[in-house]
Amino acid sequence: DAGITQSPRHKVTETGTPVTLRCHQTENHRYMYWYRQDPGHGLRLIHYSYGVKDTDKGEVSDGYSVSRSKTEDFLLTLESATSSQTSVYFCAISEGPTSTNEKLFFGSGTQLSVL
Amino acid sequence: AQTVTQSQPEMSVQEAETVTLSCTYDTSESDYYLFWYKQPPSRQMILVIRQEAYKQQNATENRFSVNFQKAAKSFSLKISDSQLGDAAMYFCAYKDRDDKIIFGKGTRLHILP
Q1: Where are chain B's structural domains?
Q2: Do A35 and B103 touch (CB under 8 A)?
Q3: A34 shares contact with chain B (CB less than 8 Å)
Q4: For B40-59, what is each residue's pLDDT tens digit?
Q5: For residue range A66-107, what is the model confidence (pLDDT) as tens digits?
């Protein structure tokens, strides 16, 4: 299994508070992704990174920011959490387009509840 | 923008039978990847099978195979000899050179003993 660790695994927070989720990888993969999973919506891309300090928006990026200061870490921040951001958040990694075996490896997910 | 559509929110199949899950996608690209991922109740995302668009041969992994129809933009997953452990949510996904990987909304598969 790919070395991807998400922290925390579960978090309950209050509306209006900032929240940061962490994704750490030991695979030295270039690409990292944040998805959210909601019933009836599948997995939707929030932000992704294609290298240190290189990030881009996904389809549901409003209300979220990311940072990648090291290859192994990709942080997702909710500046002011809202109840609509209650979801399961997945981090994923991939080698990138130069790979001959391109695929996503996923972390175990973070259940975030915003009350 | 690319889209991935899974038109079957839920399906059921008798144990040991064969089931096919549908997936269609929309793209103007010619070079891309397609994937099927499985998510059991444990929530872990598991790669089932992968197809490169430039390969005409359909990918196969043991009891899992795909029917890739590039012109029709269709990528269905066939599960043969269904087992209880196949019960899960199945997601179809698309990736092109933009490196974003887009998922469908999923199909929940039930296996009937």
Answers
A1: 3-112
A2: yes
A3: no
A4: 999 999 999 999 998 889 99
A5: 999 999 999 999 999 999 999 999 999 988 766 666 788 999
Find all residues with CB under 8 Å of B15, minimum gap 6, and list them.
B82, B83, B84, B111, B112, B113
Residue type at position B95: K
**Which residues of chain A lie closer than 8 angstroms to B33, CB-CB?**
102-103
The predicted structure's pLDDT at residue A2: 66
Burial of A33 (0-12, 13-18, 19+ CB in 10 A): buried
| CATH match of B3-112 with 3.30.43.10 | no
For residue A95, what is the nearest residue in chain B, using CA coordinates?
Answer: B99
Structure tokens at A45: 């891309």
pLDDT at A96: 75
| Chain A CB within 8 Å of residue B99 CB | yes
Sign of the CA dihedral running B5, B2, B68, A96:
negative
Residue A42 Cα, gap to closest chain B Cα (Å) = 4
Residues 6+ apart with CB under 8 A from B63: B79, B80, B81, B83
What are the structural domains, with CATH classification, of chain A? 4-114 (2.60.40.10)
